[in-house]
Amino acid sequence: MERTYHKQEINMTEALITRINELISHYPEDKRKSALLPVLHEVQDAHENWLSIELMDKVAEILLIKPIEVYEVVSFYTMYNQKPIGKYMFEFCQTSPCCLNGAENLMDYTCEKLGINLGETTEDGNFTVVGVECLGACGYAPMMQLGDFYKEHLNEEKIDQLIADCKDNKIVLHDK
Amino acid sequence: MKVTIDGQSIEVEPGTTILQAARMIGGEVVPPAMCYYSKLKGSGGKCRCCLVEVAKGSEADPRPMPKLMASCVTGCMDGMEVNSKSSERVTEARKSVTEFLLINHPLDCPVCDQAGECDLQNLSFEHGKSESRFIEEKRTFEPENIGPNIQLHMNRCILCYRCVMVADQLTDDRVHGVMDRGDHSNISTCISKAIDNEFSGNMIDVCPVGALTDKTFRFKSRVWFSKPYTAHRDCPTCSGKTTVWMFGDEIQRVTGRKDEYHEVDEFICNGCRFDHKEIADWTIEGPRAFEKDSVINQNKYNRKLQKVEIATEDHILLGREEDRKKISMAEIPLTEEDIINQKSLGNNG
Amino acid sequence: MSQKILLDKINVPGIKTYEVYRQNGGYASVEKALKTLTPDELVEEVKTSGLRGRGGAGFPAGMKWSFIDKKSGKPRHLVCNADESEPGTFKDRYLMEFIPHLLIEGMITSSYALGANLSYIYIRGEYMWVYKILERAINEAKAAGFLGKNILGSGYDLELYVHCGAGAYICGEETALIESLEGKRGNPRIKPPFPAISGLWSNPTVVNNVETIAAVPWIVNNSGAEYAKIGIGRSTGTKLISASGHVKNPGVYEIELGLSVYEFMNSDEYLGGMSSDRPLKAFVPGGSSVPVLPAHLIYKTAAGEDRLMSYESLSDGGFATGSMLGSGGFIVYNDTSCIVRNTWNFSRFYHHESCGQCSPCREGTGWMEKVLHRIENGHGREEDIDLLLSIQSKIEGNTICPLGDAAAWPVAAAIRHFRDEFEYHIRFPEKIKNRDHFVAEPFEKVKHLVSKEMI
């Protein structure tokens, strides 16, 4: 399938390389490829939460594998983004137990508030809202994933607050 | 080791799969296989066309296996008893798989270069239904150009993974693979890269459907109009042993030599396949034999041409006779038989 | 008050840290195992305990361990399956988040039993903060000498790492998990060979659920025979249940197997009854893939016996009138919920999560979702109900891995027990336009419309 090309600034910082090498050391020397998933997470986190072709090629080079092996994996797993997305990605769980507690209505509310449709990004590039499948928080529904963390027992007031906090840069996305 | 398939027994070496044993017996017991390819390591198990019923596990453990097993990846055991075509459950499962493979298939056989030598056509001829129960919109993919020699039609793909294995096992730089997942899985290079490795053309030969076809042969002819000949040439890259497909004096297409299960004897290089289409390039050994039911065999060199009679002429004359009765002799009352005949004509119209 | 062996210390302040965990008797099983038991004796203890795999299939853990190939001389691995993704299930996350050292202790003891020197915990990528918790806990355990070379001077070496997935339910299937751990797409492998012979990097491997491994320290400390005394019949020990849906107190509970469903649902110690005055309509006892049961089959089996929280009682009556304990994902529905919508939702989930490798699952899950979506949105046809039953029966049993079955079962069960609700959707499309159609007008109130039509 033809894919749209997006350009990305690549910045493999020293800290990132150190962390990648640490991850690689978790596997036998001849099994570097095993580190692919954790390494992609780290690289994506350091690059505005998405992976360009160039970035995937870079990962292939580090792990001594073919670029296609990285593309195949990236496209299989839902957590890797292949195009630029909003700084704050609201990933609402939309599987049944959450829906029993009003997840669908809350998603509508959030989209309306941000003026976008599900799956879209706001014009300022700040917010993306998507529906994802079961995140394993069924007892604390409705909920969403934001960066490395879960926001649970959500309601309209909490959504308002979250959006405000994001705008004020009060939200920590990653636990590094 | 002795294994019995549909009542026919055969002695096999340990490590033989049920499918291989069935192919040794031959004939109707052989399960269809869309993804298994004996020359590709790790192939098989995916399409589920070759499911069989293991009625007896082995002499040592005679219990039947509860689920149907994919015969291409299930090893024979001594004393094993297998039901293939003889089992209704197996027939039912093969029908199911056929239906699943067809629901999203474009069914564009009239414009597909694979038509006539397509395993999916054969499978649906054997196990398919005349009507589809699928009323939803079919899944489609954006086209991708994978270079000057190979045409990719993702909508026709059944995801057998054979072409990926060819790239992995025959070439040293695989640039295409399976992207995405579920029913959106697709064969792609991800970056619209040309697949130009010296042996990449074999992807076309291993493709069971029309997902990968030869661009140099595209829309040139229906396969059954060209005549296949066994040919060879001195090739520095591969064995040079091929089948050339001729129309008159023209070589329209070059492929590997395929056996009755549509597997090539030997993989050939892109040079032989795409770049040598002159008769002078080849030593032609003689006509290539195909299984007797293949359309490729029909009305070819091994069968005498017979006079073709067009049955419709009779019907047209009959119709005129009926019309004459109705129009010009309306005053004559119709008999009951006439009325029934008219009704049935009307229904057929 | 039933006995707790996994979550008994969950409320001890600071139990997340190594010091507090150790002060409260943590890592005793490692000391006991490494100093006084041989690996084979340990396997025997687990066999005696009757502990069954807590991921969903319920296969006896000790038996699984005894299959591991020790003759080949290849390195062996233990992989903990923390890829918890079955809708309705969130117990492993709770355990790892609040008492991570219990899992690590279990990993050490179990790895020792299997003779594994390199083990992994495969956690789903979405649990990223739990991944960090585990990484820190592993570092603490290593600093305290419970991991690394020559643990407690016993000569036994073990390296333990966490590996994170990246969003794929299918990686909860053990061979897909192994593929994913090898840095590949999560396509399940064709079995045989089983992982116990050829698993991670073709080495003998055992894959166990978080909860299974977390039960091992208690078994080592108290003996398998003691463990087998807890529970009922072949359902020994305790089980973590994740409760969600329309209940008063959703959350994770540790129960003794054999507790009655009625007590679990209604006692204040557990779920405390329904969340509102709306009546109970249906429940799913073991995560989205097991059959849903209607109200009249929840507290009593078809034979009129009390339904218990055990592998056997929940499956009493087969699929006709029973279900399965599965992973213990307990989802409760009141009469405002729509079974058709719920079934479509689950179907969408399986369609989304199918790896796409084998044809029945790849094509069938998408087809079911599309048909269910039509019915739920008022475009159903009378023949669609039988079509759904036919599609699901063609997927079931014909796929490489159990995801096909998991996608097929909920559809069959929903139609089996709630066929009239599907008919209602098909015959009265104007009444189901709103997604909350049963909130104002529960199905019980309009049921007569469908029964009339049937006369």
TrEMBL record, chain A:
Signal peptide: none annotated. Binds 1 [2Fe-2S] cluster. Keywords: 2Fe-2S, Iron, Iron-sulfur, Metal-binding. It comes from the Bacteria. InterPro entries: NuoE-like, NuoE_dom, NuoE_N, Thioredoxin-like_sf. Pfam families: 2Fe-2S_thioredx (PF01257). PANTHER family: NADH DEHYDROGENASE [UBIQUINONE] FLAVOPROTEIN 2, MITOCHONDRIAL, NADH DEHYDROGENASE UBIQUINONE FLAVOPROTEIN 2, MITOCHONDRIAL. This is NADH dehydrogenase subunit E. It comes from Flavobacterium urumqiense.
TrEMBL record, chain B:
It is found in: Membrane. Residues 1-88 form the 2Fe-2S ferredoxin-type domain. Its main location: membrane. The keyword Iron applies. Residues 89-128 form the 4Fe-4S His(Cys)3-ligated-type domain. Pfam families: Fer2_4, Fer4_Nqo3, NADH-G_4Fe-4S_3. CDD domains: fer2. One of its GO terms (cellular component) is membrane. GO terms for molecular function: 2 iron, 2 sulfur cluster binding; 4 iron, 4 sulfur cluster binding; metal ion binding; oxidoreductase activity. Its cofactor is [2Fe-2S] cluster; [4Fe-4S] cluster. The keyword NAD applies. Keywords: 2Fe-2S, 4Fe-4S, Iron, Iron-sulfur, Membrane, Metal-binding, NAD, Translocase. PANTHER family: NADH-UBIQUINONE OXIDOREDUCTASE 75 KDA SUBUNIT, MITOCHONDRIAL (PTHR43105:SF13), RESPIRATORY NITRATE REDUCTASE (PTHR43105). Belongs to the complex I 75 kDa subunit family. This is NADH dehydrogenase subunit G. The lineage of its organism: Bacteria, Pseudomonadati, Bacteroidota, Flavobacteriia, Flavobacteriales.
TrEMBL record, chain C:
SMART domains: NADH_4Fe-4S. Its EC number is 7.1.1.-. Its cofactor is FMN; [4Fe-4S] cluster. Keywords: 4Fe-4S, Flavoprotein, FMN, Iron, Iron-sulfur, Metal-binding, NAD, Quinone, Translocase. The keyword Nuclease does not apply. InterPro entries: NADH-UbQ_OxRdtase_51kDa_CS, NADH-UbQ_OxRdtase_suF, Nuo51_FMN-bd, Nuo51_FMN-bd_sf, Nuop51_4Fe4S-bd, Nuop51_4Fe4S-bd_sf. It comes from the Bacteria. It catalyses: a quinone + NADH + 5 H(+)(in) = a quinol + NAD(+) + 4 H(+)(out). GO terms for molecular function: 4 iron, 4 sulfur cluster binding; FMN binding; metal ion binding; NAD binding; NADH dehydrogenase (ubiquinone) activity; quinone binding. Residues 340-385 form the NADH-ubiquinone oxidoreductase 51kDa subunit iron-sulphur binding domain. SUPFAM superfamilies: Nqo1 FMN-binding domain-like, Nqo1 middle domain-like, Nqo1C-terminal domain-like. Gene3D superfamilies: 3.10.20.600, 6.10.250.1450, NADH-ubiquinone oxidoreductase 51kDa subunit (3.40.50.11540), NADH-ubiquinone oxidoreductase 51kDa subunit, iron-sulphur binding domain (1.20.1440.230). NDH-1 shuttles electrons from NADH, via FMN and iron-sulfur (Fe-S) centers, to quinones in the respiratory chain. Belongs to the complex I 51 kDa subunit family. This is NADH-quinone oxidoreductase subunit F. It comes from Flavobacterium urumqiense.
